[in-house]
TrEMBL record, chains A, B:
The chain crosses the membrane at residues 12-28, 34-59, 66-86, 92-117, 129-148, 154-172, 192-214, 248-268, 280-300, 312-332, 339-357, 377-399. This is SulP family inorganic anion transporter. It is found in: Membrane. It is a multi-pass membrane protein. It comes from Massilia aerilata. The keyword Transmembrane helix applies. Pfam families: STAS, Sulfate_transp. Keywords: Membrane, Transmembrane, Transmembrane helix. InterPro entries: SLC26A/SulP_dom, SLC26A/SulP_fam, STAS_dom, STAS_dom_sf. Residues 428-541 form the STAS domain. The keyword Ribonucleoprotein does not apply.
Amino acid sequence: MLAWAKNYRRAWLAGDLAAGAVVAMMMIPQGMAYALVAGLPPVAGIYASILPLLLYALFGTSSSQSVGPMAIISLMTASALAPLAAPGSALYVALAGQLALLSGVVLLACGLLRLGFLANFFSRPVMNGFTIGSSILIAWDQLGTLLGAAPPHWHGPSAALGLGALALLVLARRRGAALLRRCGLPASSADIGARLAPMLVVLGAIAAVAVLGLDRMGVRVIGQVPAGLPHLNLATSGAHWLLLLKPALLIGFMCFLLSMSGAQALAAKKGEKLLTNAELVGLGAANIGSFLSGAFPVTASLSRSAVNFSAGANSQLAGVVTALLLGAALVLPTGWLALLPLPVLSATIIVAVLGMLESGTLRTAWRYDRADALALLATAGGVLLMGVEAGVVVGLLLSMGAMIWRESRPHIAVLGRIAGTEHFRNVDRYDTETRSGVLLLRVDAGLFFGNVEAVSARAEEELALHEGVRELVLVLSAVNAIDTSALFGLLELNATLAQRGVRLHLAEVKGPVMDRLKQSTLLERLSGQVFLSTANAWHALSSKGDDCQDSIGMAI
Amino acid sequence: MLAWAKNYRRAWLAGDLAAGAVVAMMMIPQGMAYALVAGLPPVAGIYASILPLLLYALFGTSSSQSVGPMAIISLMTASALAPLAAPGSALYVALAGQLALLSGVVLLACGLLRLGFLANFFSRPVMNGFTIGSSILIAWDQLGTLLGAAPPHWHGPSAALGLGALALLVLARRRGAALLRRCGLPASSADIGARLAPMLVVLGAIAAVAVLGLDRMGVRVIGQVPAGLPHLNLATSGAHWLLLLKPALLIGFMCFLLSMSGAQALAAKKGEKLLTNAELVGLGAANIGSFLSGAFPVTASLSRSAVNFSAGANSQLAGVVTALLLGAALVLPTGWLALLPLPVLSATIIVAVLGMLESGTLRTAWRYDRADALALLATAGGVLLMGVEAGVVVGLLLSMGAMIWRESRPHIAVLGRIAGTEHFRNVDRYDTETRSGVLLLRVDAGLFFGNVEAVSARAEEELALHEGVRELVLVLSAVNAIDTSALFGLLELNATLAQRGVRLHLAEVKGPVMDRLKQSTLLERLSGQVFLSTANAWHALSSKGDDCQDSIGMAI
């Protein structure tokens, strides 16, 4: 906690101030836009970017993460609240805060229970598919606001403003950096400058509305933004705790996955070590802060974090600067924001989410592993056809299915002895000697419910191939753990083999594994023995048999 | 398909006939009882035991499995249909069939897509917890019927009949076999004889009701059972397809898990090889058959299969015999069944499900692996507190969480050379030599999204421990596969290390893995080389460095 503050170096200050300011200027349009996506008043997006940032700075460990509203999490928020309350109602606002509170508690609890390993739950193609599906869904939902009427209709002035802003933003994204470089800016500043295009477009749009009186022509604007810092909010609805639990679990889970997928890459670039459990605590605290501010669930946005990183953020102070600047913006007069036209905010949303579409993962996966590519497409399709919550579940099932499939095929090698040595290697890859009557199997994976059946089946197969075998040795040199299901599996294998007159032995059992096995009945029921080394097993078991320089298959 | 019929041996016939008859006598009370659990008329339980058995005999591969109604699946059926229709209504009956159809299609599709590996989805403690929770729930639900009134009230004659039957059945289960042995029956027949107690108790109860006129005293009886085979049923409700999809997925999944958990053990006893994909097809066909008969979802019951096995079933003909006998029972007059008292059926249900409670798994897990024991209790608690569907989800999450946790800690060894040989082994366990500047890491697990971060993190840790290292070799001798996520992870590791002047090399890449990597950009972007063997890497990379007989740690 606050380790960055204790070790703060003066040299970091310039970078932190610059990054903090740049992110604040990104955050004003983005925060308001993502509040709209979540179905909330725009100012809630600013509220979600003050206290949460300060709390993340207190508890989080990444110097680059930029916590705040994020498109996909806002979409999930809207989708969770839609069946429970009418957007804009006081209940809706209260439930959004409550959802942030619950998600925060879930994240905090996972952090304290050290469940950071859950970041490995989604495969990258599935994550990419989820992002693609959600981005398209968000962009699609914005079309009506962009055009000022539900498509295929449109409202002339709104559509002109919206599509104009869209064109400018796309242009800025595509050519902005190159243009600024040509104007003499250094490459890194030019990249950052191009990222401020949404703020400039928003300012221009406000000016256009004011000068041309577009609001009187029917262009919807965001209206009065209340000035001043957010009040302390403690509003919750007692009747909705249980109903919000499932969405809170899903949102907390996705907050973490979305945050980590970006953070890992940025941390690696800096040679920083990311403490995943501390990140969970940081994100949890940020969401609880968002609840206290009367806002909605937040996470670190990959694109904003990348800007924060390249604008020079050296520590969590950058986030503190962002928070202070946003707080200042709320304390200053906010009347000028009232004329911000909604079609332009929609344009910034559409450009931002379409920026998350990248086809590189799909193309790589399609060439490299068709099953992963199909999982990506299925997850994207799941989000588009069944909604964002169902998409998470589809993604989970596909990732888990792939994992189980992999686990059900562990690497298992038949071992033989390198002649004249005490070394035992895979008979398929080395010139080894084996003894008839003895079969050595090395399992290169921990034994657990996902693979113990496969190990038993492989043992049976090898026994069928090598008819004279009476001694089966499982070499457990790479087995870190044996779970309860695998323990039962071994007990059953031992019993089945004993019926057929084959003894089961264990070799090279690791200390911690052995300690645990001593708490079970396996060692006393084992038809064979436990050997310290494969060599011990070899000498003890083959004293009766004959040496043969051949493979087992030939020896029979 | 029908392989058993083609290879049928005359010697099997006696066993198949006996087992078929025994199971038919078990099935009459059991089928009717589990139909009641599912909220359906008792005769549906008999319908569910004719065509499904014939279809399973046609497609299934296990000679011992006894397909038909099963308590937990009936509970899941009732829980799925409760929000959709009133028990006893025509819609309810139609939806039960539709659920069997959908579950059957799910199972069939999984079989044809070769998804049999999904049988590894639940750990054994979680499965046990699920069974325990469901059994208690079923028994609890039967209390009202057993006592003839909602507890704490009771209806005297009903309670007397129900509790009396309960006592008799418990006695038969506990002492029946011993008693029959004392009467001179051989041990195996005595065990089977004791299993027929429910049928005898049911017959006795019918007689008691008839003689004492208990039905006129308010004891509820099952009433008229329609005679004749089931009509072909094709009734479905067009409005309910989507609503039934999720329960059908869960029920199909649990049908498969419940069936396989028993089948594996019985197949191992016979030295039979169970084809899991064919089992899926068999179960799918059976459920579609149950739909056609106007019944409800079915699966193989562990207890019934065990009786089938010990009564001598040698092939699927035993199931055909059961089906034919049950068909005959329906064609003969069924009037005598009308007086069967419901409290006695409840007693058979309670005794059957409480027979599924076994504390051995919990006790073993508690001593051996506390986390597995807690997963068991959490799953049982989930079923009891949140219902059977939520229980499946809790079980899934706990099993998957445990798997991910395991996967996020793959076995990784730093390798050194056994002096004077070309053998490379774990430096922690063997006396090896290493070279400063070169680090060999062997990963004992396939690389995929669940562990690639851990591999990168471990590589970074080892590099931090061994400062002078400029060449990192990943030895992939135990790596069977690298998925798309791991491919990206390796690309990122390669780039990060290159920034720091460390080259990444691969050694002992397996053929299929290499073929796939050639479809990616990894090989061209790799800062180092790909070596055929660890020895090649060792010689090529250490020609510049110095030999040292020490561990790397010492060498720095």
